[in-house]
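U., I forgot to send this yesterday:
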Amino acid sequence: MFCHLDMHLSSRGNFCLPSIRSKSIESLWIKNMTFDSSALIRLFRCTPNLRYLTTSVDKLPNNTQFSSILSSISSIDLVVDHLTNGSINLLQQMPNLTSLTLQLGKPFMNGHQWKQFILDYLPKLMTFRFLMFFSLNNEEEINEFIDTYRTPFWLIDHQWFLRCHWGLDFKNIYVYTLPYAFSFLSFIQNDQNTFTMSTCPNKNDYYTYNRVSTLLSSNDSFIYHIHFNNIRHLELTLPVSDHFLTAFPRFDRLISLTVSSDSDSDVDIVLSQLQILINRAPCLYFNSIRRLDLISGHYLKRNYCFNSEQCTTFLRSSLAKQCHVLEIVINDRSNIEKL
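Result:
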């Protein structure tokens, strides 16, 4: 039996965990819920024949113990915000695991640590996919980290390759296995100077990200050479570079679009690019703009106002004709009547 739960609950307490053992449930997919240690232990007790599990787990206490070996589980896909000894102990109880997919926060593990863990506890593992977010202090530390994934265990024995993206501040470092295995890609950087490194023998391999349906980015400098064919939800900071517009001639699958801009951005360019994006997305839920917020980044500081000429330019644009709700700061009351 396959069980798929996709729920939005106000609190964890609203979901009643099962109290009866079910030997028929072999596959369980639970979205928008996070399990703590006690709930997870109870879930395993109620599904003794569980083989496939996809869910999120809380920060498991270091002393979390699982009373029995979870020998039936062969595939697990976990979102783990904090990789604690408790979450490590969970994976140690799955000796028959053949597929492991992880989204990890800090602290992170390097290639040597993962290698030893897999050899000691996951001897049957064939597929290993992960996405990690963390920070380091300098490029030397990044190089040292990546080098731990350049050993024969990774490159020859398993052919598990990874790619890394980071910015000048080294605060948001993204590391993931290839090919990219997740439905979302989020890359938020404060500056446009980004860097990429890979362990692939051919640096041009694995640049097709077909699994990605949700893309969030405030920096397009690393995106334009990646091929996205299935984007359905897009969040961008405008303006974007010409490379980005060239890389995405169409958004045939896009159904939702959210954009923002910095306070010092040229409004005319932002509005022009927004119109271009809308024109390239024929399948948006609404072919009009439900809400256009031109205030958020400027209102309190009053560091940007639309003048009469810009209001006129906006009114002549197709954006104005599509807009249902407009929020804007103007420099002259007379522009209110014009709008």
